[in-house]
């Protein structure tokens, strides 16, 4: 059976609060530096974005898909460092979502 | 779709859309995991005017493993093997990070051409040449750029343009007078060039190496 969508009506949209403002957008959009898929998409091993494929924040302020970052940290080559700044990776406590998003 | 395939395809199309970096990435055959990257030699270096090609292999576990790159175009540089094109650069080895991309890695290669690291050489003979006489090294690097990288750069002093028959002496970074001196003793020209290159018979080194040492090496070779 084939289904053709004739019409759809969005009632809400969501976005991860990465702390970056739209002004920081360098035209590339907010993508995970490891898989290059938007944060709001999911990592390559997941099918469903959102809570099943969350983001992870480092103390250093860098953000990745959690699964991507854990896969990198799991390799010996990573030396347990953040891929962006090579500082030892320390997971930050989940930030409290800012108001007004 | 395979994560590696998705990321590589995205990188290739991003690079095609970006005209400002002057870096191109193209498929070799139908596989996106074997590519050729190309960039121009940086201005103000002996590689200026040259166009350099790099062989790119995307490993199975990319981007968690570094991309494999080597020069296809022959390059005279302390961190590039003059024979195989193999490259000594930290980010291609243990300093790799998955946030690096094909484009950023090619830009790093371009900047490696600007700033050789002779203390961490890939080609020890070229590195010795660089440390003995930088001006002689640069002349040779310029000659190679003209001969191999299609450089239309300035004429190399006293050696003419490199697009005619290649001058083996200029290629080895030696002085004609030195080669002719040992040739006059009856040694074969190719052997003389080979031995003098191995001994790094250049600049201030010439005074350190006496003729007997050279003759010894020539007899052994």
TrEMBL record, chain A:
<keyword id="KW-0479">Metal-binding</keyword>
<dbReference type="GO" id="GO:0097602">
    <property type="term" value="F:cullin family protein binding"/>
</dbReference>
<dbReference type="GO" id="GO:0061630">
    <property type="term" value="F:ubiquitin protein ligase activity"/>
</dbReference>
<keyword id="KW-0863">Zinc-finger</keyword>
<dbReference type="Pfam" id="PF12861">
    <property type="entry name" value="zf-ANAPC11"/>
</dbReference>
<dbReference type="GO" id="GO:0005680">
    <property type="term" value="C:anaphase-promoting complex"/>
</dbReference>
<keyword id="KW-0131">Cell cycle</keyword>
<protein>
    <recommendedName>
        <fullName>Anaphase-promoting complex subunit 11</fullName>
    </recommendedName>
</protein>
<dbReference type="InterPro" id="IPR051031">
    <property type="entry name" value="RING-box_E3_Ubiquitin_Ligase"/>
</dbReference>
<dbReference type="InterPro" id="IPR013083">
    <property type="entry name" value="Znf_RING/FYVE/PHD"/>
</dbReference>
<keyword id="KW-0833">Ubl conjugation pathway</keyword>
<dbReference type="GO" id="GO:0031145">
    <property type="term" value="P:anaphase-promoting complex-dependent catabolic process"/>
</dbReference>
<dbReference type="InterPro" id="IPR001841">
    <property type="entry name" value="Znf_RING"/>
</dbReference>
<dbReference type="GO" id="GO:0051301">
    <property type="term" value="P:cell division"/>
</dbReference>
<feature type="domain" description="RING-type">
    <location>
        <begin position="43"/>
        <end position="86"/>
    </location>
</feature>
<dbReference type="GO" id="GO:0008270">
    <property type="term" value="F:zinc ion binding"/>
</dbReference>
<dbReference type="InterPro" id="IPR024991">
    <property type="entry name" value="RING-H2_APC11"/>
</dbReference>
<keyword id="KW-0498">Mitosis</keyword>
<keyword id="KW-0132">Cell division</keyword>
<keyword id="KW-0862">Zinc</keyword>
UniProtKB/TrEMBL annotation, chain B:
<dbReference type="InterPro" id="IPR009060">
    <property type="entry name" value="UBA-like_sf"/>
</dbReference>
<feature type="active site" description="Glycyl thioester intermediate">
    <location>
        <position position="88"/>
    </location>
</feature>
<dbReference type="InterPro" id="IPR016135">
    <property type="entry name" value="UBQ-conjugating_enzyme/RWD"/>
</dbReference>
<dbReference type="GO" id="GO:0061631">
    <property type="term" value="F:ubiquitin conjugating enzyme activity"/>
</dbReference>
<dbReference type="Pfam" id="PF00179">
    <property type="entry name" value="UQ_con"/>
</dbReference>
<keyword id="KW-0808">Transferase</keyword>
<keyword id="KW-0067">ATP-binding</keyword>
<feature type="domain" description="UBC core">
    <location>
        <begin position="3"/>
        <end position="150"/>
    </location>
</feature>
<keyword id="KW-0547">Nucleotide-binding</keyword>
<comment type="similarity">
    <text>Belongs to the ubiquitin-conjugating enzyme family.</text>
</comment>
<dbReference type="InterPro" id="IPR000608">
    <property type="entry name" value="UBC"/>
</dbReference>
<dbReference type="Pfam" id="PF09288">
    <property type="entry name" value="UBA_3"/>
</dbReference>
<dbReference type="InterPro" id="IPR023313">
    <property type="entry name" value="UBQ-conjugating_AS"/>
</dbReference>
<dbReference type="GO" id="GO:0005524">
    <property type="term" value="F:ATP binding"/>
</dbReference>
<protein>
    <recommendedName>
        <fullName>Ubiquitin-conjugating enzyme E2 1</fullName>
        <ecNumber>2.3.2.23</ecNumber>
    </recommendedName>
</protein>
<keyword id="KW-0833">Ubl conjugation pathway</keyword>
<dbReference type="InterPro" id="IPR015368">
    <property type="entry name" value="UBA_C_fun"/>
</dbReference>
């Amino acid at each position: 059976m084939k289904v053709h969508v004739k019409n759809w009506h969005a009632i809400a949209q969501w976005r991860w609060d990465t702390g970056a403002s739209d002004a920081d957008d360098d035209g590339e959009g907010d993508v995970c530096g490891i898989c290059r898929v938007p944060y709001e998409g999911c990592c390559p091993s997941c099918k469903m974005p959102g809570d099943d494929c969350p983001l992870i924040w480092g103390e250093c302020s860098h953000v990745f898909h959690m699964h991507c970052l854990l896969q990198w940290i799991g390799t010996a080559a990573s030396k347990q460092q953040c891929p962006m700044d090579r500082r030892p990776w320390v997971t930050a406590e989940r930030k409290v979502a800012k108001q007004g998003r | 779709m395979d994560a590696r395939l998705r990321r590589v395809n995205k990188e290739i199309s991003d690079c095609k859309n970006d005209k400002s970096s002057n870096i191109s990435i193209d498929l070799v055959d139908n596989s996106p995991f074997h590519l050729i990257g190309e960039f121009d030699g940086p201005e103000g270096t002996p590689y200026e005017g040259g166009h350099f090609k790099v062989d790119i292999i995307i490993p199975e576990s990319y981007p968690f493993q570094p991309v494999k790159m080597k020069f296809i175009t022959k390059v005279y540089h302390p961190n590039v093997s003059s024979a195989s094109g193999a490259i000594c650069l930290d980010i291609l080895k243990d300093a790799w990070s998955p946030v690096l991309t094909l484009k950023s890695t090619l830009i790093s290669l371009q900047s490696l051409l600007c700033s050789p690291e002779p203390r961490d050489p890939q080609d020890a003979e070229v590195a010795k040449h660089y440390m003995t006489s930088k001006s002689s090294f640069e002349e040779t690097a310029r000659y190679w750029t003209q001969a191999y990288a299609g450089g239309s750069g300035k004429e190399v002093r006293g050696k003419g343009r490199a697009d005619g028959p290649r001058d083996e002496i200029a290629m080895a970074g030696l002085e004609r007078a030195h080669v002719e001196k040992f040739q006059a003793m009856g040694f074969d020209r190719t052997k003389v060039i080979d031995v003098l290159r191995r001994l790094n018979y250049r600049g201030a080194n010439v005074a350190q190496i006496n003729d007997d040492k050279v003759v010894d090496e020539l007899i052994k070779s």
